[in-house]
Amino acid sequence: AAALAKHSEDAELLLFAADAYSRFGNIEESGKLLAQAEKSSHRGNWLRTAARLHRYRGEPKETLARWKEVLALEPTSLDAHSSVTYLLAAVESREAALEHLRSMCERFPRNFSLHRLRAEWMSEASATEHEAAVRKLIEINPQEAWSHRELASALFRQQREEDALAAARAAVDVAPDDPWSHYFLGYHLRLTGRLPEARESFESALKISVDLTAATDNLMRTCTTLQERKAAIVFLEDQLKQQVIGGDGLMAFREAAAGVLDLPELEQSLRAAHEARPDLPQTWSVLTRHFLDMKQEDSALEFARRASELFPLSSSAWMDLALVYRARLDEAGEAASLEEALRIDPASGVAARSLAECYERGGDFAKSRDLMQMACARSPFDVFNHGFLAEALWKLGDREEGLAKLTHALQIDPTYEWGWSTLTRWAAEMDRPELPREMARELIARRPGEADPWLVLARLHNIRTEGTEKLEFLAKALELRPRFVAAHRAYAMALAGVGADSN
Description:
Layout: H1 2-6, H2 11-23, H3 27-37, H4 43-56, H5 60-73, H6 78-91, H7 94-107, H8 112-121, H9 127-140, H10 145-157, H11 161-174, H12 179-191, H13 195-208, H14 213-221, H15 226-242, H16 248-257, H17 263-276, H18 281-293, H19 297-310, H20 315-327, H21 331-344, H22 349-361, H23 365-378, H24 383-395, H25 399-412, H26 417-429, H27 435-446, H28 452-459, H29 463-480, H30 485-502
Helix pairs in contact: 2-3, 2-4, 3-4, 4-5, 5-6, 6-7, 7-8, 8-9, 9-10, 10-11, 10-12, 11-12, 12-13, 12-14, 13-14, 14-16, 15-16, 16-18, 17-18, 18-19, 18-20, 19-20, 20-21, 21-22, 22-23, 22-24, 23-24, 24-25, 25-26, 27-28, 28-29, 29-30
């Protein structure tokens, strides 16, 4: 406000302020500032700010329209293409999004960024189409490590494991200082069962950046004995001491160490990190959560309150405070903290769902529904948001709309297990027991080459009365993904069921 008073004609400042006011919930003031900046600001920047304001308000169609205007002015703008693609998929269909990218790549055949965006979206298409899109990238620029990593993923989906590993190694050769290259090589080595080699690759990634949390998680997955897990924790602790950290690595370390170190040992490590870097919100967060694990709620509340004072614009600090209030059964404090977290970060699905759950515990399902409708508009591909909204609608008696939201969530992510179990239960209550199987078959038709829908379909069949069909569906899932652990487990259990019946 002080800056605006001094520089009321500064167009960029007006746009910045409009964005900030809208992000923190002051819609009326943001609209005034945006209108004030329209005549004097760069048109593309004004449209971008207008698009963000529509997004904060949960208006995807209007957001899309603004971004299309940006593209009319700047045909190769990557942020505009990325936003238009995302919104086309949300407002129209995934096919419309892919068609947009296809036509743009034809129009700009040597534009690497556009082809990369298309390759990212093709990762859910057939593996061969995905591979073709990535190979075009490598043709344009063979020195881009991301392309080789993506090629590894496309090849692995086709069960071409050695080719996939060769592509992953090529990524390391191209960018040996990129932790993601080592991570992806380790990931594919782990999937092929080469655990010692995978562990070495994950350690290489973490030596470059201990904040690469995915590498920490996968490093622990390569450990099959307590001795190996303890050695991994010692390695991680050494890296945290040696590197300048951003905080995420410490959060991952706490999760990894919780099952290996005893609580006093873990607390000693976390306190040392906090003393070294009290400027990082994460060093406060890990201790707050540790105190909750220790049932030391007073200490947890002290740390969480102090963190929210030191980092008032950190939504995670307010989320931690809400967690403490929940442990203390203080619903008013929990709700107030979550509302503040959501005000700071309106697009946070975790904050929205936590607040909706808080409202529902108080019996206010209408308030939960309204909140989740806005959350779904802001993040249309967050499957958990759609699930929460579906349940709120169901509890309010709007069963058809709730069912529609739930099936939409399963179309976004066929692996959403809560969604399938809930769909099965709701379908039975509505006297439509065949609905889950119909949904699974629809997904198989829409996602050819994917194993997950076949596993879902198999799980929806009873081994005692439909054993042959169940085994056929599981065999198809394993044909598409030979190392699909969940399908192997289901197949073994199904065979055991068949054997029991035959005896």
